[in-house]
């Protein structure tokens, strides 16, 4: 092969656009997909705590006594956490403005929280990057004033 023919062959750029496009797509799509995955997991955590707080407050104020109210609200929160993929990892606190809790006109405040683990983050980088993001929600529900218990 002569020198000019070799130079022409090496200078030919046909087919390099495909390679450049693939590399650019990989460099842009991989971080974008990871961001979408993280945001989807955080949104699931947000749905879980919102549903857990709301439903536990509703089941608490519709119970007939305080003992049943506690167990019903915890069961409702457990279902909400499990529904969004956080089984056994959610916390629920219930506060009453009256004593006993189901005093007519009192308010029940429930607070649900969960720590959402970031997907695909190794524990080695735990000192630099947070491995979990806490998410919480609060719900206030009034105990019905005119309901007979």
Please tell me about this protein's structure.
The chain is α+β, with helices and mostly antiparallel strands. It has one domain. The chain is built from 3 helices and 3 strands, in the order H-H-H-E-E-E. It has a 3-stranded antiparallel beta sheet with strand order 1-2-3, with helices on one face. The longest helix has 46 residues. The N and C termini lie far apart (99 Å). The model has no long low-confidence stretch (mean pLDDT 89).
SSE blueprint and pairings:
Blueprint: H1 3-11, H2 16-61, H3 66-83, E1 90-96, E2 107-117, E3 132-142
Antiparallel strand pairs: 1-2, 2-3
List keywords for this structure.
149 residues, alpha+beta, 3-stranded antiparallel beta sheet, 3 helices, rod-shaped, Pilus assembly protein TadE
In short:
This is Pilus assembly protein TadE. By secondary structure, the protein is an alpha+beta fold.
Please tell me the total number of domains: 1
Largest sheet: 3 strands, antiparallel
H-E string:
HHHEEE
Strand order of the largest sheet: 1-2-3
* Beta-strand content: 15-25%
Shape: rod-shaped
End-to-end Cα distance: 99 Å
What is the number of helices?
Answer: 3
Pick out the low-confidence regions: none
Helix content: 40-55%
Number of strands: 3
Keywords: Membrane, Transmembrane, Transmembrane helix
Protein name: Pilus assembly protein TadE
Transmembrane segments: 21-42
Organism: Janibacter hoylei PVAS-1
């Amino acid at each position: 092969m002569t020198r000019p023919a070799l130079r022409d062959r090496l200078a030919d750029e046909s087919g390099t656009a495909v390679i450049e496009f693939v590399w650019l797509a990989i460099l842009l799509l991989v971080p974008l997909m990871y961001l979408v995955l993280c945001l989807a997991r955080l949104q699931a955590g947000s749905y879980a705590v919102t549903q857990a707080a709301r439903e536990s407050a509703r089941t608490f104020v519709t119970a007939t006594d305080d003992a049943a109210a506690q167990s019903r609200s915890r069961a409702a929160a457990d279902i909400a956490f499990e529904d969004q993929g956080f089984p056994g990892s959610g916390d629920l606190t219930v506060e009453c403005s009256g004593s006993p809790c189901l005093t007519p006109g009192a308010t029940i405040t429930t607070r649900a929280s969960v720590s959402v683990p970031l997907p695909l983050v190794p524990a080695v980088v735990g000192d630099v990057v947070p491995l979990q993001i806490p998410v919480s929600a609060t719900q206030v529900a009034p105990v019905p004033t005119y309901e007979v218990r």
